Amino acid sequence: MCLPVSFPRLPGLRPLLAASLTLLASGGLFAQSADQSGQSNQNDVSALKTQMQKMQKEYEDRISAMEAEMKSLESKADTGSILNTRILTDADGKEVAAAPTLDESFLKSLTRNFTFSAYIRAGFQFNGNGGGGNFSFDTPNAPGGRERLGNENDTYFELTWMQSHMLGDSPDVMDVSMTFTPAIRYVQQRASFVGNVFGNNVEHSGNDLDFVMRQAFLSVSNVFKTAPEITFWGGQRFYDRFNTDPDDYFWLDTSGYGVGVQNINVGIGQLNIAWIGGLDASNISPGIGSYFNHTFDVRLKNIDVGFGKLALVLIGNVEKGGTFNQTYNNAGNIVDLTNPVHTDTVWGIGGGAIYSVNFGPGGGNNQFQAYALFGRGITNFGAGASTGSYEAAESLFLHYHPLTPAGVEINTGDSQDHGFTYRAGFQVYFAFPWYSAAPAPAPAGLSKDGKAVAAPAPAPAPGLPWFSVGLWANWNDSYNGSAVGGSTGPGIGLGGNVANPNEPFASKVASGHAHWVDFGTRPAFWIADNIAIQGQFSGVYESNTTNGASGFPGFGHSGWLGVFDVGPVIKPKGGYFTRPEIRFFATYAIWSDHLKGLTTPIQENGGGDYAPPYNGNTNHGWLFGTQVEWYF
């Protein structure tokens, strides 16, 4: 590609050239006058002078053309487009007159519209019996994540590229930005160089290695000149996610593929609207193909309530029903389902409120947040297709009717419409004593494990703070409705009669009702400017958890899990969110007898693949290790 080049200005070239030509002409006239005389010589001098004046005019015309070309290049440079960032500019995008030199300012001029951020965690852990720690302590059916500190068994890194002003930063053009975030995660095999990464054994399969695309979207603002702040977006993105960081619980997360518009000023706040789609191809229907979820997300944010900000959330969902008779096996081949399953078209609606307040310096290290959400039907505050709900309904029926012949269709009707989800909770972080420095602005694209994080805390006054703490509690009450039937016909509905499948029915087999509560604290005491003793202490209660036999909540046991961690950490002062951290930890977990064998999952969010040595007849265990975590 031919790149435009800027030349240094030559402000003294025109007068210097004119003076030189005049001197040359007068010098020639003097020399000839000294050696010759007569009218003939005067004519020769006049002719020479005329020729020199013509040459002077030609050179002046060429200089004028060069100056016009340089002004044209300057105009292009001022737009700041990434298509012409090779024009010689300083770090602020202004053209420079010097020859290029490979220094910091010149390099910044080439990337002044580009930002990069990352989140990384890595480490090892071993269990109290001396073996590897390829598991986390977690309840089997938790809607949230695991208690994080000293209890994360994976290596995870997430890299975000963001390119701003792709068409230029002139007020006359749309302001277009691109965000791109791939991520890689290892769980079991964490060798530096792993061959046959996509092989068929468990260490090298999807049970160990995940390479995923977390974001790939465009943002477009300055579409309307009278309201340039209104921003349109499209693609795959983390969509305004909310979570409780210490236990990695995303209580509002409609991230996915979609389109939307943000920052519409409606007087009392900013209106954001999104349409997000979730596809699940695990089962196949001859009538509709793959199962698909539509999520319509409307939020009114930044409502000033005096002390803090309020956000209102409204979410609607709909999924087209069908009969599914095929699926995929582990090799990726299409196979027939043992029993086809039918679901009607189902819907959901819900919403709630989120209240947030910062009450001191240090950014997110001094903040309070509370939320309350309610969803009916399939609205569960995510954006994925709810195939698990109708599959659970089928499992429920087969659990009660184990002699159902292969090939008989199981009709779950509109059972998913009868579900509901209640959620509420709070989190608070503070550093003591407060320090006076103002928080730094967060760089564009900053994220931690896919979630927006507070700006890095500024350097506090010497000796402050010496203590920080995070406190949180969450409650989730759910009923997925799968225990309710509602149809007749050649298929068998929930509660139907295998011997007489045409017999009408309307029975409630089981509630499918599950409760989940968690709470905890993470304190840190600095014993030196960059060394602290840090711990995390948390408790989780779960009722009617999945017992592994039916695959459906409502048939399991209830029980508690307590996770306690403590150890030294190298981290800067400032509060909960200051990073990087180098941790050394000892983690002890204890759980109810009813949860024996169900608290050591290899993957996140519990459920299946419980790893030894604590998956037998025991109710406590240890993990020890080190971990580093940082983001920028």
Please provide a brief summary of the model.
This protein is mainly beta.
CATH homologous superfamily name of the largest domain? Porin, LamB type
What is the name of the CATH topology of the largest domain?
A: Maltoporin, Chain A
Distance between the termini: 34 Å
Q: Count every helix, treating DSSP H or I runs of 4 or more residues as helices.
A: 4
Fraction of residues in helix: 10-25%
Name the assembly state.
single chain
Cα-atom Rg, whole angstroms?
34 Å
Classify the beta-strand content into a percent band.
Answer: 35-45%
Mean pLDDT: 80
**Architecture of the largest domain, according to CATH?**
Beta Barrel
The total number of structural domains is 2
Outline the biggest β-sheet.
Answer: 18 strands, antiparallel, barrel
Low-confidence runs: 1-13, 23-36, 77-88, 442-446, 448-452, 483-490, 494-511, 547-554
Question: Which shape, going by the Cα principal axes?
Answer: globular
Series of secondary-structure elements, N-terminal to C-terminal: HHHEEEEEEEEEEEEEEEHEEEEEEEEE
Helix- and strand-based class?
Answer: mainly beta
Count of β-strands: 24
CATH class assignment of the largest domain: Mainly Beta
